Amino acid sequence: MEFSLIDILAIIGSLGLFIFGIKTASESIQKASGNFLSRMLNVMTKNKFSGIFTGFLLTSIIFSSSSTIVMVVSFVNSGLITLVESVSIMLGADIGTTIITWIVSVFGFDQSLSYFFIFLFAIGTPLIFSSKNKLKYVGEFIFGVALLFLGLSLIIKFVPTANEALPIFEYFKKIIPLDFIDNIFFVMIGVILTLALQSSVAAIVLTQVLCFNGLLPFEIAIPLVLGQNFGRTINAELAAMSANVHAKRTARIHSLINIFGFTWMIIVLSTFPIVEIINSIGVQLFSLESVYLAKGAPIGIAIFHSLFNIINTFILVWFIPQLVKLATNNIKSKGETDEKFHLEHLSTGILLTPDVSIFEAQKEIAKFGEIVKRMNGFLKNLIKETETNEINVLLLRIKKYEDITDRIEQDVADYLAKISQGEMNENSSIRIRGMLRIIVNLERIGDIYYQMSKGVERKNQQKTYFTPEQRTKLLNMFDLVELALDNMNQNLNSYYDNISLDKARELENNINQYRKILRKEHFESVEKGEYNFASATIYSDLFNSLEKVGDHIINVSEGVTGEH
Q1: Distance CA 295, CA 286 (A)
Q2: DSSP codes, 310-343
Q3: CB atoms < 10 A from the CB of 263, how many?
Q4: CA dist., res. 84 & res. 24, Å (int)
Q5: Residues 6 or more apart whose Cβ sits within 8 Å of residue 128
Q6: Strand ranges (DSSP E) for 144-255?
Q7: CB count, 10 Å around CB of 460?
Q8: Where are the domains of the chain?
Q9: 525 φ/ψ angles, rounded to the nearest 5 degrees
Q10: CA end-to-end distance (rounded Å), the chain
Q11: What's the mean per-residue pLDDT of the chain?
Q12: Which long-range contacts (CB under 8 A, 24 or more apart) does 180-187 make?
């Protein structure tokens, strides 16, 4: 039977269906779990072994080590876990990624089980059309698993058998046993295959199918799988190239983990009879088919894949500080430059499921709140400053920060709009509406501070001065606003579901009451002629503007809780 272009396209299409099944199952389980997975990742990292278990469990649940790694990056960015804690989670994720190969090995190649995806479609289809989101997500998960097995059955069908083998596969059988150079060659082939498919799992499953159909000797499958396991690190490095320093360091640690694993395993593979050892484990320990036979090869690959990642993990778990130090020294931080704007928490370039994406946006909005608080400090210093050069520096800084607030509002709004385009539950929709309200109010605070700075600039140009009493009262009001900003930022950095507005309302009321006192005293002072008209006008504009800032601050906290 001639192997044609149509057959190649059929295999590629089947692999695409398999990958789409994994993607659907992964995303649906994340949507169904809400922010439970994120909280689990935050809580279950008390020590390195619990971190390994967390990474393993999370990756096993969501079928994707990539999603786990991206969650880890977001938590390191937000400061909820340290870079050290993230390493153990990544080590566990490497073990968790082997689960798919076991599922495929156990259920995918058994004729009596391989077609049970038909029944999964029957169960999942009605659930997909459920009006209840939880049931709908469960249906999507079942549907994704069914697509996974449908794709696998089609791969097995379209991949040629030993009788239909191409000459290249016949050549493979003649070069056994492999030497060091041969192992390196097939590792590189495995890396290239992973990069081409953009999925190490799909590449490993294809290798399992090739062995099952008798095209590929098990001895060659082992270095191929080693290369496919290593290939995913390149994808992570490429994804982190345009990201922040935390993402780069996390990707680099993941690369160091796999570089170390690749190095020792390629030496062991070329020195010891690894294939015989795996065969003995399968046949003698678990009473399975020999790895040299079609039925035993897929399980043999799963055994190798798991043992390699488990051994690598329990070697490196004792060297976590060294891995962190290497990555930190290798990826230097450029430092925090106040004048340079960048989105810190949305810079991975990966849009995740709504709940995780909303968490990312929350951290960026928290950073937005800190920027606004700095502007309050700049204005406060501007009121006190008497040196012309320092005044000009502060005026330029306030202008730059106002530009920053404009850009953050636009970029976060665009990000939230992208999240909204996907499917989400009612709670996520309410949360996004609240976040949109928050960023509008934060941007408005930035505008008010800029207008206040222009008022102070006019005062200085007109050679108009505040009395010591005016300056003291303004500074007192700045202090009240700063307390409100501190409370606002505390709310922005907390879990939104746990926020109470009592403190925020109390602080906002304090600002309003003090503004009333200042306004009353101001009118009395003007009537008495205690200061000139120009000074009185700017003074009045400033304390009234600060009261407006207080209004926007309470609006932000109300946006956090979802109140209107």
Answers
A1: 14
A2: HHHHHHHGGGHHHHHHHHHHHS------TTS---
A3: 10
A4: 31
A5: 136, 139, 140, 143
A6: none
A7: 16
A8: 5-330, 354-561
A9: -70, -40
A10: 70
A11: 83
A12: 180/266, 180/270, 182/223, 183/223, 183/266, 183/269, 183/270, 184/223, 184/266, 185/223, 186/220, 186/223, 186/224, 186/227, 187/223, 187/224, 187/226, 187/227, 187/230, 187/262, 187/266
Tokens standing for residue 300: 């043999």
Tokens standing for residue 416: 């939230």
What local confidence, expressed as pLDDT, does residue 417 receive? 83
- Asked if residue 95 has pLDDT above 70, the reply is yes
Render pLDDT for 318-330 as a digit per residue (tens, 0 to 9).
999 999 999 988 8
Burial of residue 458, with CB atoms counted within 10 A of its CB: 0-12 exposed, 13-18 middle, 19 or more buried: middle
Indicate if the alpha-carbon torsion angle 143, 146, 151, 154 is positive or negative: negative
Classified as helix, coil or strand, 11 is helix
Alpha helices, DSSP H, located in 44-132:
48-62, 65-78, 83-96, 99-103, 111-114, 117-128
What value, to the nearest 5°, has the Cα angle with vertex 453 and ends 447 and 456?
A: 150
Cβ-based burial of 510 (10 A; exposed 0-12, middle 13-18, buried ≥19): middle
Only one residue has tokens 């977001």, namely 74
Superfamily covering domain 354-561: Phosphate transport system protein phou homolog 2; domain 2 (1.20.58.220)
398 in helix, strand or coil?
A: helix
For the stretch 319-356, what's the b/e string if a residue is b when 16 or more beta carbons lie within 10 angstroms of its beta carbon? ebeebbeebeeebeeeeeeeeebebbbbbbebebbbbb
Per-residue pLDDT band for 22 (boundaries 50, 70, 90) equals: confident
Q: How far apart are CA 200 and CA 229, in angstroms?
A: 6
pLDDT in tens, 120-171: 889 988 888 887 877 888 898 899 888 988 888 888 888 877 665 566 666 6
Residue that is written with structure tokens 């002072």 in the block: 525
Interhelix angle 36-43/354-384, nearest 10 degrees = 70
